[in-house]
Design a protein that fits this description.
Layout lengths: L3 E5 L6 H9 L17 E7 L2 E7 L11 H15 L2 E7 L6 H12 L4 E6 L3 H10 L9 E2 L8 H11 L19 H6 L2 E7 L5 H9 L17 E7 L2 E7 L12 H16 L2 E7 L6 H13 L2 E7 L7 H15 L8 E3 L8 H15 L5 H14 L12 E8 L4 E6 L7 H15 L7 E6 L13
Parallel strand pairs: 1-3, 1-4, 4-5, 5-6, 7-9, 7-10, 10-11, 11-12, 14-15
Antiparallel strand pairs: 2-3, 8-9, 13-14
Length: about 450
């Protein structure tokens, strides 16, 4: 098990900024507004030759029992229980506050090694506030500026004392030089992003998959802000599942924090391999659902459509049969995509959903043999030849698959700019049926075949 460090402190002292600095990426949302972080986030931290797991937590704050604030603190307490050591962060510019003193006692009761970090210590004002930190009785404060990267060598010295000796590494090499075998590729976790409109039940579904209240849920829309990743194992197969903020229409997004949350959700879609688009069964296939589906198709990700809150519906038998028809009619760009009725709260349809994710992932990775591809191509062109453009016949020579993930093909032809979009749509739909490629995005790129006589001059008339 790697050494685990939890970053704790009151709201708005720079915990997420420090987390981003240690993991080397802007994973956690950062804003001047207090209380941005709600769920605990995990990352692989590195400082010099020290490697560890770092946990970003919600700011320690008091709230009524059962309230969102109280449940945020429960998440922080869980992170403290999982950690081997704590980094207690204070704002050196603001100086000590009564909350800092109260939570210092809380950190001491955890009976874990504590590194006192005085963040925002740059400049004269930060120096004075850092000196006040001695009153907490947690040892010498480490003065840093997480935003500017100052004082990290002192933080290294403080952590080095707590951590076991780093293992000796052999000759360095780049990950790009590693050739991944088919067996290793098959064992790699499938990256899955759960997206949808606000309050569609995304976090509730993931909590049921994990069997614990790992993510905060609430009847209030917009509870999730960061895109949080969790590890899930289902029937021996590993998944890395990303919970995302709800996606509203752009015209309704006016707060800076929500814009950051939406941008984080869009990054999760681009990083994912399979995207589960979750809809509310009582308000399914609204305009925003169709926009989200179109985004997923443009990004070229495998897709599974999940209709959540199915336990609230009546006459379920007749509704299930209509879902397939609705998807093919409203989302022709992902015709045949798997549709699963689920209830994240009650656990209905979870096995079907995970099976559909595996199947969609397999289709997304599919390669079609060139010989079979061109036999289909000849039959498709003979059955429906391309139209003439400006009185000239289009000549389609042959087709080959360039790559998978998603299945992408190169079609060699005489005049690439003249091939109608409608004809490419015909080829795409025909290919779906011929090679069993339901739902996955299919890319057909046109390339003009070189003219062997182009270099020769025309004879004078």
């Amino acid at each position: 098990m790697p050494f685990t460090i939890a970053i704790i402190g009151r709201p708005n002292v720079g915990k997420s900024t420090l987390f981003n600095r240690l993991v080397g990426q802007k994973l956690a949302l950062v804003d001047d507004e207090p209380g941005v972080t709600r769920d605990r986030r995990e990352g692989n931290g590195r400082l010099g030759d020290l490697e560890f797991t770092v946990l970003d937590t919600a700011g320690l704050d008091e709230g009524a029992r059962g309230s969102l604030t109280a449940r945020m603190q429960e998440q922080t307490e869980t992170a403290i229980a999982l950690a081997d050591a704590l980094m207690f962060v204070i704002d050196a510019r603001a100086g000590l506050t009564p909350n800092d003193r109260a939570f210092a006692d809380f950190a001491r009761r955890a009976n874990k090694p504590v590194v006192l970090v005085a963040n925002k210590s740059e400049g004269r004002h930060g120096e004075v506030g850092a000196m006040e930190a001695y009153a907490l009785g947690l040892g010498d404060p480490v003065q840093i500026s997480a935003e500017h990267g100052e004082g990290l060598s002192d933080l290294y010295d403080a952590l080095r004392v707590l951590m076991p000796d780093p293992t000796e590494e052999g000759e360095e090499f780049d990950d790009d030089d590693i050739i991944e075998s088919d067996e290793d590729f098959a064992k790699r976790p499938i990256r899955v992003a759960i997206v949808g409109r606000p309050n569609a039940g995304k976090s509730t579904l993931i909590n049921h998959l994990l069997g614990e209240e790992r993510l905060l849920t609430s009847a209030e829309a917009g509870t999730t802000r960061d895109s949080i990743s969790v590890e899930v194992t289902w029937q021996g197969r590993d998944f890395r599942v990303f919970d995302t903020a709800g996606l509203r229409r752009r015209a309704r997004i006016d707060e800076k924090l929500e814009k950051l949350s939406v941008a984080d959700a869009l990054r999760a879609v681009r990083f994912a391999e399979v995207v589960v688009m979750m809809m509310d069964a009582q308000n399914r296939f609204e305009e925003q659902d169709l926009r989200i589906a179109d985004l997923i198709e443009r990004e070229g990700r495998a897709v599974v459509l999940a209709v959540n809150k199915w336990d609230l519906m009546e006459k379920k038998g007749s509704l299930v049969s209509g879902l397939r028809t609705d998807v093919d009619h409203l989302l022709p760009q992902m015709k045949g995509a798997p549709v699963v009725a689920v209830s994240g709260l009650m656990g209905e349809g979870i096995d079907r959903l995970m099976s559909a994710i595996e199947q969609a992932y397999a289709v997304w990775n599919k390669r079609v043999p060139t010989a079979a591809l061109n036999r289909w191509f000849e039959q498709a062109v003979d059955a429906n030849p391309p139209p003439s453009v400006s009185g000239r016949r289009l000549k389609l020579n042959y087709i080959t698959q360039a790559k998978a993930r998603p299945p992408s093909f190169i079609l060699f032809c005489s005049r690439a700019d003249a091939v109608p979009t409608s004809y490419l749509r015909y080829l795409t739909n025909s290919m779906r049926e011929a090679f069993d490629l339901p739902g996955t995005p299919i890319r057909i790129m046109l390339r003009e075949k070189a003219n062997p006589f182009a270099h020769k001059r025309k004879r004078p008339s």
